């Protein structure tokens, strides 16, 4: 086949994923915390971007953020603090002797510091940033956070007790090695034989040190299993008798609610067994988690839904989660007028301006898209907001995407890690998207979440003498118009951590007999 060169034109259309388009898509699925981090990084790189304070109303002029444009002039961002200020010599020679003494530090404060009066701040304009500066100690300068002690970790608590529990330096070294093998829950993850081999010490010596460490607080640390952790706590409470030891040694029977076998193994009656179970429930299976140093962050809703006086719903974006990004166009005009158009500085400013405009447009589009999706979700789930989870409708991404004329992937990104505050509580947006379950009578389908709520309610209200099996729940749901298979009921029940009917029957009958006696 002969090859020949040719020249021709071809016209085609294609969707090109530019870096800015990909970044806009990523902005859509970012959480409030991630979005703030990204904006702070952009502000550090771009001199035209600013973050407005939360109490800033836009500076009295047009603002340029995700809702309104706000342009700040150079006088606000590049103020001249030195204008109109006399120099040091003028301050020292044009005034009274007292002024000169203050200027040249002629006092005796360094000799008699206790008798000195309040000291003037060295730089009053920086008092808000430097709380340790002289002159910022009085009045509102105090910050209670400066006096709060740092939270101690589990290792800090144990290291404070080890010198009192072990006197030998060698034992303390072994103890430190064992402390390093604790997990966040306070359990010992290392192997004693391997530890002894690594430290070139007899296993009995390591076991002796471990036994001493297991007496430390919080009780239950350095345990190698759940049974040992509970046993250590019971020994500290002086409740580890032979019956309790048999119960702790057979936790698998307790998980199966096999009370008949437990009574035989423990050699106690039903009332005593229930008392022992109550004591077990009071113990902490993970004693080390109370010293976790990770800060827990409260969930901040992105959308707030309120009931309107006319019976409809008022939907708004949470202003606390909306970043206020400002573009300083006056600064750009000032600097660009002093640079040549063919210089690198001018090109850098143009690139910064394009990036700033893209960021403000992307944030505005992100807010509008979240608002569209939230409005459609509220419209679809109006019955849930009015009457509760029993009226939660089945909903999927395609239904919302078709209603707002967007792609399903866009709706999926919007609903990821976004929360809505409603009169019914705080919910993630994905909570409103549930699987559809067919109706037994050919009517409207049911939401999977509402069906799980029905199953939970039926099991909670069941009679101890007539515990519902999975087949009984299927029949009750079918009478209520829900067509569900038995294996699906079992799957929902296990997902809600509800034991089987056999286990529930044993537990409820035992509790009923104990209450009657």
UniProtKB/TrEMBL annotation:
InterPro entries: RNA_pol_sigma_54, RNA_pol_sigma_54_core-bd, RNA_pol_sigma_54_DNA-bd, RpoN_core-bd_sf. Residues 144-331 form the RNA polymerase sigma factor 54 core-binding domain. Residues 348-506 form the RNA polymerase sigma factor 54 DNA-binding domain. Coiled coil: none annotated. Residues 50-118 are annotated as: Disordered. It comes from the Bacteria. The keyword DNA-binding applies. NCBIfam families: PRK05932.1-3, PRK12469.1, rpoN_sigma. Sigma factors are initiation factors that promote the attachment of RNA polymerase to specific initiation sites and are then released. This is RNA polymerase sigma-54 factor. It comes from Shinella oryzae. The gene is rpoN.
């Amino acid at each position: 086949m002969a090859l020949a060169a040719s020249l021709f034109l071809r016209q085609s259309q294609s969707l090109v994923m530019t870096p800015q388009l990909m970044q806009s898509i990523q902005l859509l699925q970012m959480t409030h915390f991630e979005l703030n981090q990204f904006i702070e990084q952009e502000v550090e790189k771009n001199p035209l971007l600013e973050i407005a304070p939360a109490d800033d109303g836009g500076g009295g002029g047009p603002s340029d953020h995700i809702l309104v444009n706000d342009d700040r002039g150079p006088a606000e961002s590049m103020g001249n603090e030195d204008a109109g200020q006399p120099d040091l010599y003028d301050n020292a020679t044009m005034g009274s002797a007292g002024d000169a003494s203050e200027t040249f530090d002629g006092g005796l404060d360094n000799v008699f510091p206790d008798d000195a009066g309040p000291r003037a701040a060295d730089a009053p304009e920086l008092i808000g940033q430097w709380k340790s500066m002289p002159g910022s100690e009085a009045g509102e300068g105090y910050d209670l956070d400066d006096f709060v002690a740092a939270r101690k970790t589990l290792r800090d608590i144990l290291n404070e007790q080890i010198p009192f529990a072990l006197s030998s330096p060698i034992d303390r070294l072994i103890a430190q090695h064992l402390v390093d093998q604790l997990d966040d829950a306070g359990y010992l993850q290392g192997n004693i034989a391997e530890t002894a081999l690594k430290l070139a010490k007899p296993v009995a010596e390591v076991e002796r040190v471990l036994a001493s460490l297991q007496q430390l607080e919080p009780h239950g640390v350095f345990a190698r299993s759940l049974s040992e952790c509970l046993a250590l706590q019971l020994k500290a409470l002086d409740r580890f008798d032979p019956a309790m030891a048999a119960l702790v040694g057979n936790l698998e029977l307790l998980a199966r609610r096999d009370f008949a076998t437990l009574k035989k193994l423990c050699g106690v009656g039903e009332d005593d067994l229930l008392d022992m179970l109550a004591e077990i429930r009071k113990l902490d299976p993970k004693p080390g988690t109370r010293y976790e140093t990770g800060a827990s962050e409260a969930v901040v809703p992105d959308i707030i839904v309120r009931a309107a006086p006319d019976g409809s719903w008022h939907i708004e974006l949470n202003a606390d989660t909306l970043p206020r990004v400002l573009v300083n166009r006056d600064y750009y005009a000032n600097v660009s007028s002093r640079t040549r158009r063919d210089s690198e500085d001018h090109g850098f400013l143009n690139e910064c301006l394009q990036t700033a405009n893209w960021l403000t447009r992307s944030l505005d589009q992100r807010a509008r898209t979240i608002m569209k999706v939230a409005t459609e979700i509220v419209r679809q789930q109006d019955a849930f907001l009015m009457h509760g989870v029993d009226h939660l409708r089945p909903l999927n991404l395609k239904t919302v995407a078709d209603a707002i004329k967007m792609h399903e992937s866009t709706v999926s990104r919007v609903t990821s890690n976004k929360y809505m505050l409603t009169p019914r509580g705080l919910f993630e947006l994905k909570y409103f998207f549930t699987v559809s379950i067919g109706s037994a009578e050919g009517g409207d389908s049911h939401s999977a979440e509402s069906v799980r709520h029905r199953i939970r309610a039926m099991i909670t209200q069941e009679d101890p003498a007539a515990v519902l099996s999975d087949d009984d729940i299927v029949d009750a749901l079918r009478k209520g118009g829900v067509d569900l298979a038995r294996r699906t009921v079992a799957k929902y029940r296990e997902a809600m951590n509800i034991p089987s009917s056999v286990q529930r029957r044993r537990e409820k009958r035992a509790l009923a007999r104990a209450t009657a006696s």
